[in-house]
Design a protein that fits this description.
Layout (H helix, E strand, L loop, with lengths): L4 E14 L4 H9 L7 E14 L3 E5 L6 H9 L6 E6 L3 E4 L12 H11 L4 H15 L14 H12 L6 E4 L8 H14 L4 E5 L3 H7 L2 E6 L2 E6 L1 H17 L29 H5 L6 E4 L8 E2 L4 E9 L8 E3 L3 E10 L3 E2 L1 E8 L5 E6 L1 H4 L5 E2 L4 E9 L2 E2 L2 E12 L4 E7 L3 E5 L9 E2 L11
Parallel strand pairs: 3-7, 3-8, 5-6, 6-7
Antiparallel strand pairs: 1-2, 1-4, 8-9, 10-13, 10-23, 11-22, 12-14, 14-19, 15-18, 16-17, 16-21, 20-24, 21-22, 21-23
Protein backbone atom coordinates (compact mmCIF):
# COMPACT_ATOMS: atom_id res chain seq x y z
CA UNK A 1 0.00 0.00 0.00
CA UNK A 2 1.34 3.44 -0.95
CA UNK A 3 2.61 5.61 1.89
CA UNK A 4 0.12 8.28 0.77
CA UNK A 5 -2.88 5.97 1.23
CA UNK A 6 -4.52 5.85 4.69
CA UNK A 7 -7.35 3.40 3.92
CA UNK A 8 -7.56 0.88 1.08
CA UNK A 9 -10.74 -1.18 0.61
CA UNK A 10 -10.82 -3.92 -2.05
CA UNK A 11 -13.83 -6.02 -3.09
CA UNK A 12 -15.31 -5.73 0.42
CA UNK A 13 -18.37 -7.86 1.13
CA UNK A 14 -20.45 -8.52 4.23
CA UNK A 15 -23.21 -11.14 4.21
CA UNK A 16 -25.69 -11.84 7.01
CA UNK A 17 -27.82 -14.96 7.36
CA UNK A 18 -31.52 -14.18 7.85
CA UNK A 19 -33.60 -16.92 9.49
CA UNK A 20 -37.41 -16.81 9.21
CA UNK A 21 -37.89 -18.90 12.35
CA UNK A 22 -35.69 -19.30 15.48
CA UNK A 23 -35.69 -23.11 15.09
CA UNK A 24 -34.16 -22.77 11.62
CA UNK A 25 -30.85 -21.88 13.27
CA UNK A 26 -30.83 -25.29 14.95
CA UNK A 27 -31.76 -27.08 11.71
CA UNK A 28 -28.93 -25.27 9.94
CA UNK A 29 -26.43 -26.50 12.54
CA UNK A 30 -27.66 -30.07 12.14
CA UNK A 31 -27.73 -29.93 8.33
CA UNK A 32 -23.92 -29.69 8.12
CA UNK A 33 -24.18 -27.71 4.89
CA UNK A 34 -26.44 -30.19 3.07
CA UNK A 35 -29.41 -27.81 3.15
CA UNK A 36 -29.82 -24.05 3.58
CA UNK A 37 -32.38 -22.74 6.08
CA UNK A 38 -31.53 -19.06 5.75
CA UNK A 39 -31.70 -16.21 3.28
CA UNK A 40 -28.61 -14.17 2.46
CA UNK A 41 -28.57 -10.41 3.04
CA UNK A 42 -25.59 -8.60 1.57
CA UNK A 43 -25.04 -5.49 3.68
CA UNK A 44 -22.00 -4.67 1.51
CA UNK A 45 -21.22 -6.13 -1.89
CA UNK A 46 -17.94 -5.64 -3.75
CA UNK A 47 -17.02 -2.19 -2.41
CA UNK A 48 -13.64 -0.81 -3.52
CA UNK A 49 -12.05 2.60 -2.85
CA UNK A 50 -8.94 4.35 -1.53
CA UNK A 51 -8.62 7.28 0.87
CA UNK A 52 -5.41 9.30 0.95
CA UNK A 53 -3.78 10.67 4.07
CA UNK A 54 -5.20 14.04 5.11
CA UNK A 55 -8.39 13.54 3.07
CA UNK A 56 -11.82 14.25 4.55
CA UNK A 57 -14.39 11.87 3.09
CA UNK A 58 -18.14 11.96 3.61
CA UNK A 59 -20.13 8.73 3.41
CA UNK A 60 -23.79 9.19 2.55
CA UNK A 61 -26.66 6.91 1.68
CA UNK A 62 -30.14 5.92 2.77
CA UNK A 63 -30.84 3.81 5.85
CA UNK A 64 -29.76 0.25 5.15
CA UNK A 65 -27.25 1.23 2.48
CA UNK A 66 -24.33 -0.22 4.48
CA UNK A 67 -22.75 2.94 5.93
CA UNK A 68 -22.50 1.74 9.53
CA UNK A 69 -21.36 -1.73 8.44
CA UNK A 70 -18.56 -0.19 6.38
CA UNK A 71 -17.41 2.05 9.24
CA UNK A 72 -17.41 -0.83 11.72
CA UNK A 73 -15.24 -2.94 9.43
CA UNK A 74 -12.81 -0.05 8.91
CA UNK A 75 -12.60 0.32 12.70
CA UNK A 76 -12.03 -3.42 13.10
CA UNK A 77 -15.13 -4.15 15.20
CA UNK A 78 -16.72 -6.22 12.42
CA UNK A 79 -15.11 -8.83 10.17
CA UNK A 80 -15.79 -8.88 6.41
CA UNK A 81 -17.23 -11.93 4.67
CA UNK A 82 -14.75 -11.43 1.85
CA UNK A 83 -12.45 -8.77 0.49
CA UNK A 84 -9.78 -6.81 2.33
CA UNK A 85 -9.26 -3.59 4.30
CA UNK A 86 -5.86 -2.03 4.86
CA UNK A 87 -5.61 0.81 7.36
CA UNK A 88 -2.42 2.74 8.03
CA UNK A 89 -2.36 4.56 11.38
CA UNK A 90 -4.30 4.65 14.63
CA UNK A 91 -8.07 4.77 14.15
CA UNK A 92 -10.43 6.42 16.65
CA UNK A 93 -14.19 6.20 16.15
CA UNK A 94 -17.38 7.77 17.42
CA UNK A 95 -20.05 5.36 16.21
CA UNK A 96 -23.34 4.41 17.88
CA UNK A 97 -23.91 5.72 21.41
CA UNK A 98 -22.08 3.86 24.13
CA UNK A 99 -19.93 1.75 21.79
CA UNK A 100 -16.85 0.57 23.69
CA UNK A 101 -18.20 1.76 27.04
CA UNK A 102 -19.41 -0.29 30.00
CA UNK A 103 -22.60 1.21 31.49
CA UNK A 104 -21.81 -0.24 34.93
CA UNK A 105 -18.42 1.54 35.10
CA UNK A 106 -17.99 5.19 36.04
CA UNK A 107 -17.01 7.81 33.50
CA UNK A 108 -13.48 7.83 34.94
CA UNK A 109 -13.16 4.06 34.59
CA UNK A 110 -14.54 4.16 31.06
CA UNK A 111 -11.99 6.80 30.04
CA UNK A 112 -9.19 4.44 31.05
CA UNK A 113 -10.95 1.46 29.44
CA UNK A 114 -11.68 3.20 26.13
CA UNK A 115 -8.31 4.95 25.83
CA UNK A 116 -6.45 1.70 26.57
CA UNK A 117 -8.35 0.04 23.69
CA UNK A 118 -6.80 2.68 21.43
CA UNK A 119 -3.34 1.64 22.60
CA UNK A 120 -2.60 4.30 25.21
CA UNK A 121 -0.65 3.32 28.32
CA UNK A 122 -1.81 4.23 31.83
CA UNK A 123 0.84 6.95 32.00
CA UNK A 124 -0.41 8.48 28.73
CA UNK A 125 -4.02 8.33 29.93
CA UNK A 126 -3.12 9.95 33.25
CA UNK A 127 -1.24 12.70 31.39
CA UNK A 128 -4.32 13.46 29.25
CA UNK A 129 -7.06 12.78 31.80
CA UNK A 130 -7.54 16.41 32.89
CA UNK A 131 -7.77 17.52 29.25
CA UNK A 132 -10.35 14.80 28.55
CA UNK A 133 -12.55 15.77 31.51
CA UNK A 134 -12.25 19.46 30.64
CA UNK A 135 -13.32 18.76 27.05
CA UNK A 136 -16.22 16.54 28.13
CA UNK A 137 -17.37 19.13 30.71
CA UNK A 138 -19.67 16.75 32.61
CA UNK A 139 -18.56 17.84 36.10
CA UNK A 140 -19.00 15.41 38.99
CA UNK A 141 -20.72 12.89 36.72
CA UNK A 142 -17.25 11.69 35.75
CA UNK A 143 -17.39 9.53 38.90
CA UNK A 144 -20.95 8.29 38.31
CA UNK A 145 -21.90 5.08 36.42
CA UNK A 146 -22.54 5.59 32.72
CA UNK A 147 -26.03 4.10 33.08
CA UNK A 148 -27.01 7.37 34.79
CA UNK A 149 -25.83 9.47 31.81
CA UNK A 150 -28.03 11.15 29.22
CA UNK A 151 -27.32 10.52 25.53
CA UNK A 152 -25.66 13.94 25.33
CA UNK A 153 -23.31 13.11 28.20
CA UNK A 154 -22.43 9.82 26.49
CA UNK A 155 -21.37 11.71 23.37
CA UNK A 156 -19.42 14.31 25.36
CA UNK A 157 -17.32 11.68 27.07
CA UNK A 158 -16.87 9.54 23.95
CA UNK A 159 -15.77 12.46 21.80
CA UNK A 160 -13.47 13.78 24.53
CA UNK A 161 -11.65 10.43 24.56
CA UNK A 162 -11.17 10.14 20.79
CA UNK A 163 -10.00 13.77 20.66
CA UNK A 164 -7.07 12.93 22.95
CA UNK A 165 -5.76 9.56 21.73
CA UNK A 166 -3.52 11.05 19.02
CA UNK A 167 -5.39 9.27 16.23
CA UNK A 168 -4.29 9.38 12.60
CA UNK A 169 -7.75 8.49 11.30
CA UNK A 170 -11.01 9.68 12.83
CA UNK A 171 -14.37 8.06 12.07
CA UNK A 172 -17.48 10.00 13.08
CA UNK A 173 -21.03 8.69 12.62
CA UNK A 174 -24.34 10.48 13.25
CA UNK A 175 -23.74 10.49 17.03
CA UNK A 176 -22.96 14.25 17.13
CA UNK A 177 -26.58 15.05 16.30
CA UNK A 178 -27.56 14.56 19.97
CA UNK A 179 -25.08 17.10 21.37
CA UNK A 180 -26.06 20.56 22.60
CA UNK A 181 -25.13 23.64 20.59
CA UNK A 182 -22.08 24.63 22.67
CA UNK A 183 -20.59 21.13 22.54
CA UNK A 184 -21.27 20.58 18.84
CA UNK A 185 -19.46 23.85 18.06
CA UNK A 186 -16.52 22.70 20.21
CA UNK A 187 -16.43 19.39 18.32
CA UNK A 188 -16.55 21.15 14.96
CA UNK A 189 -13.62 23.37 15.94
CA UNK A 190 -11.67 20.25 16.88
CA UNK A 191 -12.61 18.47 13.63
CA UNK A 192 -11.58 21.42 11.47
CA UNK A 193 -8.22 21.54 13.27
CA UNK A 194 -7.81 17.75 12.94
CA UNK A 195 -8.59 17.96 9.21
CA UNK A 196 -5.43 20.01 8.61
CA UNK A 197 -3.25 16.90 9.03
CA UNK A 198 -5.46 13.90 9.87
CA UNK A 199 -7.78 11.68 7.84
CA UNK A 200 -11.49 12.02 8.61
CA UNK A 201 -14.43 9.78 7.66
CA UNK A 202 -17.69 11.61 8.26
CA UNK A 203 -20.94 9.66 7.93
CA UNK A 204 -24.17 11.65 7.81
CA UNK A 205 -27.61 11.99 6.22
CA UNK A 206 -27.04 15.76 6.32
CA UNK A 207 -25.79 16.54 2.81
CA UNK A 208 -25.03 20.16 3.71
CA UNK A 209 -22.68 18.93 6.45
CA UNK A 210 -20.89 16.66 3.98
CA UNK A 211 -20.57 19.46 1.39
CA UNK A 212 -19.25 21.93 3.98
CA UNK A 213 -16.78 19.60 5.72
CA UNK A 214 -15.53 17.09 3.16
CA UNK A 215 -13.09 17.16 0.26
CA UNK A 216 -14.72 14.11 -1.36
CA UNK A 217 -17.71 11.83 -0.76
CA UNK A 218 -18.84 8.23 -1.28
CA UNK A 219 -22.43 7.31 -2.12
CA UNK A 220 -23.64 3.89 -0.95
CA UNK A 221 -26.87 2.33 -2.18
CA UNK A 222 -28.14 -1.10 -1.12
CA UNK A 223 -24.68 -2.23 -0.08
CA UNK A 224 -22.90 -1.11 -3.23
CA UNK A 225 -20.76 1.93 -3.89
CA UNK A 226 -22.51 3.94 -6.57
CA UNK A 227 -19.91 6.67 -6.92
CA UNK A 228 -17.06 8.60 -5.32
CA UNK A 229 -16.34 12.19 -6.20
CA UNK A 230 -16.83 15.81 -5.25
CA UNK A 231 -19.20 16.27 -2.27
CA UNK A 232 -21.58 18.57 -4.15
CA UNK A 233 -22.01 16.13 -7.05
CA UNK A 234 -22.45 13.13 -4.75
CA UNK A 235 -24.97 15.01 -2.59
CA UNK A 236 -27.01 15.88 -5.68
CA UNK A 237 -27.02 12.24 -6.79
CA UNK A 238 -28.11 11.15 -3.31
CA UNK A 239 -31.02 13.60 -3.25
CA UNK A 240 -32.05 12.56 -6.76
CA UNK A 241 -31.99 8.87 -5.80
CA UNK A 242 -33.88 9.61 -2.58
CA UNK A 243 -36.75 11.29 -4.42
CA UNK A 244 -36.80 8.64 -7.14
CA UNK A 245 -37.22 5.96 -4.47
CA UNK A 246 -40.32 7.80 -3.27
CA UNK A 247 -41.95 9.00 -6.49
CA UNK A 248 -40.47 6.79 -9.20
CA UNK A 249 -37.80 7.20 -11.85
CA UNK A 250 -37.06 10.76 -12.91
CA UNK A 251 -38.32 11.67 -16.41
CA UNK A 252 -35.99 14.66 -16.77
CA UNK A 253 -32.23 14.95 -16.73
CA UNK A 254 -31.41 18.60 -17.24
CA UNK A 255 -27.79 19.65 -16.76
CA UNK A 256 -28.74 23.32 -16.80
CA UNK A 257 -28.55 26.05 -19.43
CA UNK A 258 -27.11 29.52 -19.51
CA UNK A 259 -29.52 32.36 -18.90
CA UNK A 260 -29.08 36.06 -19.48
CA UNK A 261 -28.19 38.15 -16.47
CA UNK A 262 -30.87 40.56 -15.44
CA UNK A 263 -29.68 44.06 -14.55
CA UNK A 264 -31.35 45.34 -11.40
CA UNK A 265 -32.27 48.99 -11.50
CA UNK A 266 -30.60 51.18 -8.90
CA UNK A 267 -34.06 52.48 -8.08
CA UNK A 268 -35.04 49.05 -6.70
CA UNK A 269 -35.55 49.27 -2.97
CA UNK A 270 -33.47 46.58 -1.20
CA UNK A 271 -35.39 46.86 2.06
CA UNK A 272 -38.71 45.11 1.51
CA UNK A 273 -40.94 42.65 3.28
CA UNK A 274 -41.82 39.18 2.13
CA UNK A 275 -45.31 39.27 0.58
CA UNK A 276 -46.16 36.15 2.63
CA UNK A 277 -44.96 37.62 5.95
CA UNK A 278 -48.40 38.02 7.53
CA UNK A 279 -49.41 34.49 6.51
CA UNK A 280 -46.14 32.93 7.69
CA UNK A 281 -46.03 34.82 11.01
CA UNK A 282 -49.58 33.74 11.85
CA UNK A 283 -48.73 30.07 11.23
CA UNK A 284 -46.47 27.40 12.74
CA UNK A 285 -43.82 28.41 10.18
CA UNK A 286 -43.04 31.69 11.94
CA UNK A 287 -39.26 31.97 12.36
CA UNK A 288 -39.20 31.94 16.17
CA UNK A 289 -35.66 32.42 17.48
CA UNK A 290 -34.64 31.96 21.12
CA UNK A 291 -31.62 33.94 22.33
CA UNK A 292 -29.58 32.44 25.17
CA UNK A 293 -27.52 34.44 27.65
CA UNK A 294 -23.98 35.60 26.92
CA UNK A 295 -21.40 33.05 28.07
CA UNK A 296 -18.18 34.89 29.01
CA UNK A 297 -16.60 31.69 30.36
CA UNK A 298 -16.70 29.87 27.04
CA UNK A 299 -13.49 28.83 25.25
CA UNK A 300 -11.45 31.88 24.22
CA UNK A 301 -7.98 33.13 23.32
CA UNK A 302 -6.01 36.39 23.05
CA UNK A 303 -3.47 38.54 24.87
CA UNK A 304 -5.99 39.66 27.51
CA UNK A 305 -5.13 43.35 27.03
CA UNK A 306 -8.86 43.86 26.45
CA UNK A 307 -11.78 41.60 27.29
CA UNK A 308 -15.26 41.11 25.86
CA UNK A 309 -17.70 41.74 28.73
CA UNK A 310 -21.10 41.58 27.06
CA UNK A 311 -22.81 40.42 23.85
CA UNK A 312 -26.51 41.13 23.32
CA UNK A 313 -29.09 41.26 20.56
CA UNK A 314 -31.19 44.44 20.88
CA UNK A 315 -34.30 45.64 19.13
CA UNK A 316 -34.35 48.92 17.21
CA UNK A 317 -34.98 50.82 20.43
CA UNK A 318 -31.96 49.28 22.15
CA UNK A 319 -33.88 46.90 24.43
CA UNK A 320 -32.21 43.47 24.96
CA UNK A 321 -34.21 40.53 23.56
CA UNK A 322 -34.53 36.91 24.60
CA UNK A 323 -36.86 36.03 21.73
CA UNK A 324 -37.12 37.36 18.20
CA UNK A 325 -38.75 36.57 14.85
CA UNK A 326 -36.49 36.06 11.83
CA UNK A 327 -36.54 38.91 9.34
CA UNK A 328 -36.66 41.55 12.09
CA UNK A 329 -34.25 44.49 12.38
CA UNK A 330 -31.77 43.91 15.20
CA UNK A 331 -28.69 45.46 16.76
CA UNK A 332 -25.79 43.25 17.85
CA UNK A 333 -24.08 44.98 20.76
CA UNK A 334 -20.54 43.99 21.81
CA UNK A 335 -18.97 45.58 24.90
CA UNK A 336 -15.35 45.29 25.96
CA UNK A 337 -13.09 46.54 28.76
CA UNK A 338 -9.51 47.74 28.18
CA UNK A 339 -6.98 46.34 30.66
CA UNK A 340 -4.41 48.63 29.01
CA UNK A 341 -4.52 51.32 26.32
CA UNK A 342 -5.72 49.95 22.97
CA UNK A 343 -4.78 51.87 19.80
CA UNK A 344 -6.85 51.38 16.65
CA UNK A 345 -9.28 48.85 18.17
CA UNK A 346 -11.26 46.50 15.94
CA UNK A 347 -14.45 44.87 17.26
CA UNK A 348 -16.13 42.21 15.18
CA UNK A 349 -18.07 38.94 15.12
CA UNK A 350 -18.65 35.65 13.28
CA UNK A 351 -22.18 34.29 12.87
CA UNK A 352 -21.91 30.49 12.48
CA UNK A 353 -24.22 27.57 11.87
CA UNK A 354 -24.16 24.31 13.85
CA UNK A 355 -21.28 22.99 11.71
CA UNK A 356 -19.08 25.94 12.59
CA UNK A 357 -19.49 27.33 9.07
CA UNK A 358 -19.35 31.14 9.05
CA UNK A 359 -22.59 32.39 7.49
CA UNK A 360 -21.68 36.07 7.74
CA UNK A 361 -19.26 38.25 9.67
CA UNK A 362 -18.27 41.89 10.05
CA UNK A 363 -16.14 44.28 12.08
CA UNK A 364 -15.61 47.98 12.71
CA UNK A 365 -12.35 48.38 10.76
CA UNK A 366 -13.61 49.83 7.46
CA UNK A 367 -15.94 52.27 9.20
CA UNK A 368 -13.20 53.68 11.48
CA UNK A 369 -10.04 53.05 9.43
CA UNK A 370 -9.34 56.79 8.99
CA UNK A 371 -9.94 57.66 12.65
CA UNK A 372 -7.18 57.26 15.21
CA UNK A 373 -9.50 55.79 17.81
CA UNK A 374 -8.06 54.87 21.23
CA UNK A 375 -9.55 53.02 24.19
CA UNK A 376 -7.86 54.33 27.34
CA UNK A 377 -6.84 51.88 30.06
CA UNK A 378 -9.75 51.15 32.38
CA UNK A 379 -12.34 52.42 29.88
CA UNK A 380 -15.20 50.47 28.31
CA UNK A 381 -15.93 50.43 24.59
CA UNK A 382 -19.13 49.41 22.83
CA UNK A 383 -19.75 48.50 19.18
CA UNK A 384 -23.20 48.11 17.66
CA UNK A 385 -23.99 46.42 14.35
CA UNK A 386 -27.47 47.11 12.98
CA UNK A 387 -28.82 44.68 10.39
CA UNK A 388 -31.85 42.61 9.42
CA UNK A 389 -31.64 39.15 10.92
CA UNK A 390 -32.05 36.54 8.16
CA UNK A 391 -34.92 34.06 8.19
CA UNK A 392 -32.93 31.03 9.31
CA UNK A 393 -33.42 27.30 8.92
CA UNK A 394 -34.32 25.41 12.11
CA UNK A 395 -31.39 24.56 14.39
CA UNK A 396 -28.74 26.19 16.55
CA UNK A 397 -26.42 29.07 15.60
CA UNK A 398 -23.70 30.94 17.46
CA UNK A 399 -22.06 34.36 17.55
CA UNK A 400 -18.33 34.59 18.28
CA UNK A 401 -17.21 38.16 19.21
CA UNK A 402 -13.65 39.47 19.19
CA UNK A 403 -11.57 42.57 19.90
CA UNK A 404 -8.25 43.15 18.16
CA UNK A 405 -5.79 46.01 17.68
CA UNK A 406 -4.23 47.18 14.42
CA UNK A 407 -5.42 46.80 10.84
CA UNK A 408 -7.38 44.22 8.86
CA UNK A 409 -4.16 42.68 7.52
CA UNK A 410 -1.89 43.14 10.55
CA UNK A 411 -3.46 42.98 14.01
CA UNK A 412 -3.11 41.52 17.49
CA UNK A 413 -6.03 39.50 18.81
CA UNK A 414 -6.76 40.54 22.41
CA UNK A 415 -9.90 38.50 23.12
CA UNK A 416 -11.88 36.10 20.96
CA UNK A 417 -14.69 34.10 22.56
CA UNK A 418 -15.92 31.03 20.71
CA UNK A 419 -19.74 30.77 20.55
CA UNK A 420 -20.34 33.40 23.23
CA UNK A 421 -23.99 33.82 22.25
CA UNK A 422 -26.17 30.91 21.16
CA UNK A 423 -29.47 31.36 19.35
CA UNK A 424 -31.89 28.55 18.54
CA UNK A 425 -34.42 28.59 15.71
CA UNK A 426 -37.53 26.67 16.78
CA UNK A 427 -39.54 26.95 13.57
CA UNK A 428 -38.90 28.13 10.05
CA UNK A 429 -40.42 28.59 6.61
CA UNK A 430 -37.06 27.58 5.12
CA UNK A 431 -37.39 24.26 3.32
CA UNK A 432 -33.88 24.05 1.85
CA UNK A 433 -30.77 26.15 2.15
CA UNK A 434 -29.30 28.03 5.08
CA UNK A 435 -31.64 31.02 5.17
CA UNK A 436 -34.60 32.48 3.31
CA UNK A 437 -34.56 35.54 1.05
CA UNK A 438 -37.73 37.65 1.36
CA UNK A 439 -39.78 37.55 -1.85
CA UNK A 440 -40.86 40.99 -3.09
CA UNK A 441 -43.58 39.34 -5.19
CA UNK A 442 -44.67 35.88 -6.29
CA UNK A 443 -46.85 35.36 -9.35
CA UNK A 444 -48.14 32.30 -11.19
CA UNK A 445 -50.45 31.88 -14.16
CA UNK A 446 -51.26 29.62 -17.10
CA UNK A 447 -50.21 30.68 -20.61
Amino acid sequence: MSSEIAIKVENLCKCYHIYDKPRDRLWQMLAFGRKQYYREFWALNNVTFEINKGETVGIIGRNGSGKSTLLQMICGTLNPTSGSIQVKGRVAALLELGAGFNPEFTGRENVFLSASLYGLSNDEINANFDKITEFADIGDFIDQPLKTYSSGMFVRLAFAVIAHVNADILVVDEALSVGDAYFVQKCMRYLREFMKNGTLLFCSHDTSAVVNLCSSAILLNQGQMESKGKPKEIAERYLSALYESIQGESKVNNTGSKTEDKVVSSSDNFEYKDVRELLINSSTLRNDIQIFRFNQENSSFGTGAAKITSVKLLDEEGIPMSWIVGGSKVILEIRCYAQQQINRPILGFHFKDRLGQVLFADNTYLTYMFENMVIEEGRECVARFAFTLPILASGSYSISPAIAEGTQEDHVQHHWIHDALIIHVHASSVCFGVFAVPMRSITMGCL
